[in-house]
Amino acid sequence: MLSLVVPVRNWPEQRISTCMRSFLRLKSDTLSEVLIVDFGSDEPLAVHSGDPRVRIVRVEAKVWSLAEAINVGVLHAEGAVIAKTDADIIIAAEAGPSLDRAVAATADGTTGLALAQAIDLPETIGAEEAYQASSRRLNTMGRVRPRWGQGGLAVFSRFTWEAIGGFDSRFTGWGNEDNDFAERVRRSGRKVRWFDSDALKIYHVWHPPSFHGKGIVARRAANIEVAKKDRSVFRPLRILHSQAPRRSQDKSGLSNVAPRTPPLVTIAIASTERKNRLRMLKEAIRSYVGQIGNDMEIVVADNGSSDADYEHLCAELCKLKLPVPLRPIRVKEPSIPAARNAITDAAAGRYICVADDDDIALPNRLMDHLACFEKDPAAHGSHGGWIDFDEQTGLIEINEGKERTLATLLFGSGKITSHPTCFYRTDVLRRIRYDEALALGSDFDLALRMANAGLKIKHTHSYVILRRFHSTNVTVTGLANQVTNGEKSRFRLRDSLGSALCDGFAASAKASDQLVYCRNRIDRQRIIEMLPPYAGVWRLHFPLSVLKTAVPPRTNGNGESLQPSGSDAQESDPDALGDRGDPLPGAVPDYSTVERVIETVDGDIGSTASGINLEFAYVSRPLRGAAKALRAKRRLGELGIEAELTAEYDFAERSRRGFPWSHLKVPKGARRLLSEPINDPLAVTKALAKLPASSILRGMMSVIADGTAEGFRYHLVSGPLRGREAAQSTAVMLRKLSAIPFTLVANGGVACDF
Fold first, then answer.
1. Where are the domains positioned within the chain?
2. What was the pLDDT predicted at 695?
3. How far apart are CA 443 and CA 459, in angstroms?
4. Between 717 and 215, residue with greater pLDDT
5. Which of 133, 197, 442, 575 could form a disulfide with 438 if both were Cys (CB 3.0 to 4.6 A apart)?
6. Domain spanning 525-551+586-656 has what CATH number?
7. Three-state secondary structure call for residue 705
8. Using CA atoms, how far apart are residues 629 and 518, in angstroms rounded to an integer?
9. Where are the strands (E) in 396-456, listed by range?
10. Fold annotation for 2-256
11. Does position 553 have pLDDT exceeding 50, yes or no?
């Protein structure tokens, strides 16, 4: 059960033999093997022992790394519990029962790391003499070492070693690797305990400062820097300094070390057979690949599918060539909470990342969740913001979420959390499980019970997923049941708390009911780039002003300008002013660009919102699929045009928002002139072009874009006019110049008539 690892490099064989014999003489029920790791000694080590429990593991290494040597020993060890000691340690002959108790405590998880406090012996006592001497004599001659060094004798389980990624091989020579390992065990939530120093004695035999070669001072300084700067708990096992072999299980010889640590994170996906399941599930799975160095496994729980559907799912998942383990499991009776609980029971990761089979993880998701535990090792879980997108329409909604407390869950407003953004410690989910009595809403019930238990669920302060809406997801098909079950869970908890506590929670929720700021702000154009290529129906649009380019005035041979200006310019070339909108002074439309735009993206000129004096835009025809829309956007970019993408659904909604006629006010006694509706925006610009640009009449006219269910219609409207005669004469003039009828209107007479 217990494997003792003794890492050495260029140590005297007599010292190593004495250390080994002191452990072999123990009356221990657990010590099953002693592994002496010869980490690149100049001459291969040859320690002779008649005990079959002793093995020598030789690896070639140019650089001495005590940390990596320990890892090599653990990889070769057969025991579930590991004891690591140094070759300059002698253990008291009567310490066997105490060592067994430490092994039992680490094996059952009561203790994460058990340490022994060494007694430093004077230079006058050699290794063999210390081996022969009684503990009483050695105790009186030696001095107890302070508990700043934790490497004399350390006992830990293989599970603990795997859970934090073993010793950090970046530590070279010796020093700091033991303290770093102990601190990471402690920050992982496991207990670090010292042996009873009276029951278990170990003695450190004096020796010259180092047998590990030159440069020890520089290495110690580098080790200190690593320990200071890296405060992470888990570090993927790395073999950096040796050609470390491991024993092959199929007796085919030796091969390079392959890390056998369990994954850090289990991606937990509960999936139900439905239309397009495989397509969405594969997209969900692939969105996690590459994050946190692929230190993960993916578990897909098939939720109540038929035998044929389950077999088809397994066959399709096998076709995925992934650099991470992927395991399908099965829940025969349809139940979302039962599927979630089954994944929790099967999970090998230290953390469980909750995921839906139709959502897409953002690249920062796992890193941001783990950062919460780095900042607060006492945290039990985390959640983040999310971005909703509709697969059919492309409509996007950004949700930051809020801090998840009992007060906000019971009495908060708006969207506080979303279950597929959650990330929990595996041991937490194994104790507070999904309620299988709730077909829907078990996720919110779980959140309430966690909050009521006082668990700390931190916010990542970032968006972590793209949450998909489609015709068959549970949020759409089971919304009513989810809301009902959520209210039942709230009522049940409120009833148990009592009115006084509820009043306090309500006040607390009101005071802290605010959205969380997410640092990875993502604009809508970037979100569209992250959507599946087939998602949404889109419109491309950009203001017409980008199609106009400055043109130098034409001159004759004497340098005199041949370009007309002012009203003469308008009258001589009305099309140059009006065909593509009201031009900038001294500029004309770049018609070659206009033609290229039309060839690139089919569309028309129009408005993108209701309003007054809004600039006309070029608006594409509806483009189905984000990939097609982005390709069109890139082609326009090659023409120097930065276009904006808007979901067709959102664009249509804007079109239905009519112009706020009540805002079109005039002073008492004044009137406005309002044209009849004009459907073609080009007709509007041509009508304006017929009004002399420098005239008062042109300056007083504005263009109103009014959205309707059928699209946009336009009106020309004058500024306030006083006096009926002035207004009527202006109307006659406008009609004569523009060929458009005008009506005299006042406050309150616009909305109904026009």
1. 2-256, 265-515, 525-551+586-656, 661-745
2. 76
3. 17
4. 717
5. 442
6. 3.30.70.1070
7. strand
8. 28
9. 396-399, 423-425
10. Spore Coat Polysaccharide Biosynthesis Protein SpsA; Chain A (3.90.550)
11. no
How far apart are the C-alpha atoms of 629 and 594, rounded to whole Å? 19
Q: Mean pLDDT across the stretch 212-236?
A: 74
Enclosing H/E stretch for 636: helix 626-638
Convert 120-161 into a string of H (helix), E (strand) and C (coil): ECCCCCCHHHHHHCCHHHHHHHCEECCCCCCCCEEEEEHHHH
Q: Are 324 and 297 in contact (CB under 8 A)?
A: yes
Give the per-residue pLDDT at 473: 56
SS3 sequence, 187-206? HCCCCEEECCCCCCCEEECC
- Hey, is 271 helix, strand or coil? strand
Model's pTM, two decimal places? Answer: 0.62
Backbone angles phi and psi of 542, in degrees to 5: -155, 150
Token pair belonging to 26 = 């123990």
Cα 6 from Cα 73, distance rounded (Å): 8
Q: Nearest 5°: phi and psi at 280?
A: -70, -40
525-551+586-656 and 661-745 share one fold: yes
Q: What's the rounded mean pLDDT across residues 224-237? A: 79
Enter the DSSP assignment of 173. B
Structure-token pair, residue 205: 């035999």
pLDDT score of 2 more than 60: yes
Give the integer Cα–Cα distance in Å for 398 and 416. Answer: 13
**CA nearest neighbour of 419 among 496, 482, 472, 363:** 482
Taking the C-alpha atoms of residue 408 and residue 415, their distance in angstroms, rounded to an integer, is 10
The least confident of 133-142, 423-432, 549-558 is: 549-558
Alpha carbon distance 205, 120 (integer Å): 7
- Structure token pair of residue 533: 């290529």
Q: DSSP letter for 349, please.
A: S
- Per-position DSSP letters for 217-266, written without gaps between them: HHHHHHHHHHHHH---S-------SEE-EEE-TTSS-EEE----PPPSEE
Query: DSSP of 453-511, one letter per residue?
Result: TT--EEEEEEEEEEEEE-TTSHHHHTHHHHHHHHHHHHHHHHHHH-HHHHHHHHHHHHH
CATH architecture of the domain formed by 265-515: Alpha-Beta Complex (3.90)
340-371 per-residue burial string, b: 16 or more CB within 10 A, e: under 16: bbbbbeebbbbbbbbbbbbbbbbebbbebbbb
Measured from the Cβ of residue 744, the count of other Cβ atoms closer than 10 Å reads 16
Residue for token digits 């004891």? 83
In the block, which residue shows the tokens 């590459």? 290
For residues 722 and 727, give the distance between their C-alpha atoms in angstroms, rounded to a whole number: 7
Burial code of 253-282, b = ≥16 C-beta within 10 A, e = fewer?
Answer: eeeebeeebbbbbbbbbbbbbbeebeebbe
Contacts of 105 (CB under 8 A, 6+ apart): 111, 114, 193
Q: Confidence band (pLDDT; 50, 70, 90) for 719?
A: confident
Q: Please state, in angstroms and rounded to a whole number, the distance separating the CA atoms of residues 585 and 235.
A: 64
Count the residues in the chain: 754
CA distance 473 to 392: 13
pLDDT at 747: 57
Task: Out of 3.30.70, 3.40.50, 3.40.630, 3.30.200, select the CATH number for domain 661-745.
Answer: 3.30.70
Please indicate whether residue 395 or residue 501 has the higher confidence score (pLDDT): 395
- Let me know: does 529 contact 639? Beta carbons within 8 Å: no
Looking at residue 217, its amino acid is: V
Confidence (pLDDT) at 1: 82
What is the per-residue pLDDT across 255-290, written as a single tens digit (0 to 9) for each? 333 444 678 899 999 999 988 999 999 999 999 999
Instruction: Look up residue 318 and give its two tokens.
Output: 């096998």
